[in-house]
Amino acid sequence: MAGRWQRTPNEAGAREIVRALYGDVKDVEWIPSDDADVFRVTFTSGRRARVLKLGISGNPAVWREVGAFPAMRSMGVREVLEFEYTSEDLPGSEYDFHVTAELTPPPRANQAMARMWADDRPRAVELARWFGDCTRRVEGLDWRSVPRANSPERTIEMATRWWRPHYDNLVARPDCPRWVREFVDRVREHIRRPPTSFGGWGGELLRAQDGSFLLIDWPSLGAAPPCSQAATALEVLLRFGAADPTPLVEAFVDGWAPGGLDDRHLQDLRLTWVHSILGWAGMSLTFDDPDADLGPAYAAARHDLGEDDPAAWLRRAAGNP
User: Fold this and answer.
1) Helices within 41-141 (DSSP H only)
2) CATH of domain 106-317
3) CATH assignment of 11-101?
4) At residue 85, what are phi and psi to the nearest 5 degrees?
5) Please, which pLDDT band fits residue 7 given cuts at 50, 70 and 90?
6) Which of 47, 57, 139, 175 is buried most, with the most CB atoms less than 10 Å from its CB?
7) Where are the domains of the chain?
8) What is the dihedral sign for C-alpha 271, 277, 283, 289?
9) Helices 106-119, 121-139: inter-axial angle, 10-degree rounding
10) pLDDT (tens digit, 9 = 90+) per residue, 257-296?
């Protein structure tokens, strides 16, 4: 998207923080990121590298994580970052920040998933089941018990403000089908309803030294529409690169909804899944090309609206309908 990462990272602030915390800093290297200034910190002593995530003006993502992650871990969602230091350890600092041990970054974590499917499919299936179980635990959190989590009112405000211009661009296109306009009306009504679940994860993963995965990038952490966390996690299964994702989807559902996928969950999951397809199409009009060919997005959305098997949604998304 145009304008991404064009800000100047706050390297001076980063160096000030890490030198206050460590006496053996060797270097501070910026890692491009959307919602914060992220830096890799290395040391002259040879200790393991650290990652500093530093808040940027106008974006409370780091402030929210500092408050929320310890509470989420204490409530059974241990798949979020564990902090070594936060801004609470430097009361005089003007910045919101947290410091963690360096873990395997998202591109390599994604590659590990693809290798796992190629080399050890039973383990990949178990990982998909873990994704489902983790999703169930996240969605079961009460936003009121998670410090700094977005309230239902805040979630509605953010979703409405974000999606309105993109869907306005979509339905303004002369080639926008009637069924898409009707679906957009459903989405607009859906995001105006008080959210009854918890979520806000953006889909990024890190991999720990023991091979486990951690969920990072929570741009809208807090109260969330039903099944929105599940739809994001389901899409992550595409990173296994399976031509037929059926066993992965079955394992995911088994972890997420052990009693089976009832009609209410299916309808909410499908609405969020198709909302992602058409919402991204609208975003492409806003940020990239207002004359973009939306035929493939329309075809995918139409297919998934008429299909009750989530594995079929993933097959089509992977190019294997």
Assistant:
1) 61-74, 106-119, 121-139
2) 3.90.1200
3) 3.30.200
4) -140, 155
5) confident
6) 139
7) 11-101, 106-317
8) negative
9) 130
10) 999 999 999 999 999 999 999 999 999 999 999 999 999 9
**Cβ-contact 39, 51 below 8 angstroms:** yes
Rounded to whole angstroms, how far apart are CA atoms 23 and 3? 36
Distance CA 198, CA 230 (A): 10
Q: What is the mean predicted confidence (pLDDT) over 105-113? A: 94
The helix (H) or strand (E) run that includes residue 255 is helix 246-256
The answer to whether 95 and 63 are in contact (CB under 8 A) is no
Closest CA to 20 of 82, 99, 83: 99
What angle (nearest 5°) sits at the alpha carbon of residue 169, between those of residues 168 and 173? 115
pTM for this prediction: 0.93
Structure tokens at 75: 């409530």
Q: What is the pLDDT of residue 92?
A: 86
Tell me which H or E stretch contains 249.
Answer: helix 246-256
pLDDT band at 34 (very low <50, low <70, confident <90, very high): confident
> Same CATH topology for 11-101 and 106-317?
no
d(CA 36, CA 201): 15
Q: Give the tens place of pLDDT for each residue, 167-218.
A: 999 999 999 999 999 999 999 999 999 999 999 999 999 999 899 999 999 9
Q: How far is 125 from 117, CA to CA, in rounded Å?
A: 8
